[in-house]
Model the fold of this input.
Amino acid sequence: MIMVLFLLSAGLVVYVYALFPVLLHLRARGCPELSAKEPEQWPTVSIVIAAHNEANNLPIKFKSLEELDYPSDLIEWIVVSDGSTDHTQEVAAQWFDSHDNRKLIHLDTSRGKCGALNEGVAQATGEIILFMDARQPVSNNSAKRLIPFLLDPTIGAATGELVLSDNTSLEAANFGLYWKYEKWIRDNQSRLFSTTGVTGALYAIRRADFRPNPQGTLLDDFDTPVGLLEQRKRTVYVPGAFAFDAAADDIHQEFRRKVRNLGGNWQSFSRHPWLFNPKKNPVWIQFLSHKFGRLIVPWALILALLTALIGAVSGSAFLLVMLLLQLAFYALAIASYLDLPFARAKILNFPKIFVQMNAAALMGTLKYFFSKRAISWR
Done:
């Protein structure tokens, strides 16, 4: 029985992180590359940005918006200052004064990101809503790269890609490697049918398809495409439309972000229980294997370690070897976390990001179900 439990738990980990992505790639390999033709007449676009204390980031952001390769008379900016207490309003006003197609909305009381986005969309006039974050500048082709895909009525959203700036820290390098892995999965999902998430820093949908997310929603970049998926509309990943960001050097800051995002998945699952129904969810297998599986893996890791320990004590040579391999893996993660010299090579630093990801999933789950303090967006 112990051997069976170990094989099941270890097999789940291998399936979620290795086997499923490979199987997904093999299935998507025969699908054509996504492409879209430029329209004869470009639609009107509203760029909607939620900003909370982003005074330092807005000038770089606005400069990238002014450089967009899109007809200026067809585009409007809407920035919602979500209870900002710094100089966000003053900085934005410098760029908005004397521009009829730029709107600055200030909310005295913070409503969270989704509440701010809802307010922005309510005042938008464009046929297309182009959501962006306040921090990341975007490539000048981003609007023209994403919008043609929305001319296909089966596509509900088109998302760009996050590109991390050059950073020599191992934490940044690890996150960059992980993000490349995630983009590879999204690309295959998109070619096969649809992703279940977007890059929150850059994605476009039709205003007519937008459904406000409830205030307090943690993951608009998951709940919005899931709402479209319920209508059988695809979300596609479009390489070549870029949002530029710097990978976090601070491991604690990155961990808190992961806890919020992974814990927020449970909130989304509770609001969309149909995702677990194979008759209603057109991407049921990939949802269970990717989104849901990532939240189950930490418990499988714990079970694999416990069953290997029990089996080793009981005299199983195989489980003794499995126990030693797991302990060595976790020892490397600790050594990398402590920044010991022998663990600074990128390949040896992989255990840290794997352990960090699963610790965040475990913490996010525990905080969502048992903590008296709600996980919040900032």
The first strand starts at residue 45 and ends at 51. DSSP finds eleven helices and seven strands in the chain. Residues 336 and 344 are 6 Å apart (CA to CA). Strands lie at 45-51, 75-82, 102-107, 128-133, 155-164, 202-206, 234-245.
